[in-house]
């Protein structure tokens, strides 16, 4: 297991600017971490192009699976015949779900609830799993291996994203 490398954190002004620019609200544990340090190779909140691509990744991956792999939940209604219409339905579904904030690679933490302790998700198309019960647990698993510790029995429920995890595990 490769060790993470850390670099200096952001200033409070940089984090406020990033949240404003990308219309996000970081959970307090993410703010605390990013003020102290940030992982090398993680999301660079001063790089607009990188951040916009990472913010689009969850929707784009789900859309790929809608179009290429037949992903469609009955809760979304009848599957439209046209790709544009399917994309619009999916856009609404993802828009109603908590925004996922990129951390490192395809690991994300939900923006809401806006409190410490949100799980970290690994997001690759519709292959969405928990990668940490919370931010600290996630970085421990990044450092020591995904299965290094037992998973807690209760991981905070996040609208839509937790259901994606359940459906991947069934």
Description of the molecule:
With 170 residues, this protein is of the alpha+beta class. It has one domain (9-169). Helix content is 43%, strand content 15%. It has helices at residues 12-21, 28-36, 48-68, 83-96, 135-144, 161-169, and strands spanning 6-8, 37-39, 100-104, 107-110, 120-124, 127-132. The strands form two sheets. Strands 3-4-5-6 form a four-stranded antiparallel sheet. It has a two-stranded antiparallel sheet with strand order 1-2. A hairpin with a 2-residue loop joins strand 3 (100-104) and strand 4. The longest helix has 21 residues, at 48-68. 25% of the residues are buried. The model has no long low-confidence stretch (mean pLDDT 95).
Give the helix proportion (percent range). 40-55%
Structural class: alpha+beta
Number of strands: 6
Name the shape in a single word. Answer: globular
Report the C-alpha radius of gyration, rounded.
16 Å
Number of domains: 1
List the total number of helices. Answer: 6
Average predicted confidence as pLDDT: 95
Flag low-confidence runs. Answer: none
Order of helices and strands: EHHEHHEEEEHH
Biggest beta-sheet profile: 4 strands, antiparallel
Query: Strand order of the main beta sheet, please?
Result: 3-4-5-6
Give the distance, in angstroms, between the N- and C-terminal Cα atoms. 28 Å
Q: How much of the residues is beta strand, in percent? A: 15-25%
